Amino acid sequence: MKTAYILLIVAALYVTCTSCSQQPPNTQIMNHTNNPVFSKTDTGKVALSNDEWKKILSPEVYHIAREKGTERPYSSKYEEFNDIGTYYCAVCGNALFRSDTKFESGCGWPSFYEPISKSSVIYEADNSYGMRRTEVMCGRCKSHLGHVFDDGPKPTGLRYCINGVVLDFEKAKEAEKKYDAEHPQS
Ligand SMILES: [Zn+2]
């Protein structure tokens, strides 16, 4: 009887350890499990109160997205980052920019010359801090992303200066793999 009990414990330990080792070692993937509105497929508008956002978002993302904060220049991992893929809104999962529209502006923030579609972002006049700027917000959840200026490269001549904190990058290959897994060839 005692032996069986010990065997059971050993078995339980083995199962626990096996499941541990199967967890992906890369913890860089952003954790959206506490965020019920985050979706890369749902395009329905999201309107939550700031009290609700506060419960869902990390303090860093909340400050930029909901309090129109600005991250320190040259602090974003996406500032000098050239991987091929898609940039999503880190707040709601809305697709915002494609990597092939990203360029090195030298301004200290990830910069793009064009959003992924007309409705992916929305604009508002921003006259704060004695400047006349155009604010860029997520077209799905209205989170603050950054500003757009008219000193960008061709073909648009625009420079979308975006806080990396509110961007969530997905490599093209990862997207492809996910697509293949969801649509297995028969
Ligand atoms: Zn969003």
UniProtKB/TrEMBL annotation:
A Pfam entry, by short name: SelR
Domain MsrB residue range list: 50-172
InterPro entries given in the database record: Met_Sox_Rdtase_MsrB, Met_Sox_Rdtase_MsrB_dom, Mss4-like_sf
Binding-site positions, Zn(2+): 89, 92, 138, 141
Cofactor(s) it depends on: Zn(2+)
GO MF term set: peptide-methionine (R)-S-oxide reductase activity; zinc ion binding
GO BP: protein repair; response to oxidative stress
EC number of this enzyme: 1.8.4.12
Cofactor note: Binds 1 zinc ion per subunit. The zinc ion is important for the structural integrity of the protein.
Family label: Belongs to the MsrB Met sulfoxide reductase family.
UniProt protein name: Peptide methionine sulfoxide reductase MsrB
Organism taxonomic ancestry: Bacteria, Pseudomonadati, Bacteroidota, Chitinophagia, Chitinophagales
Gene this chain is encoded by: msrB
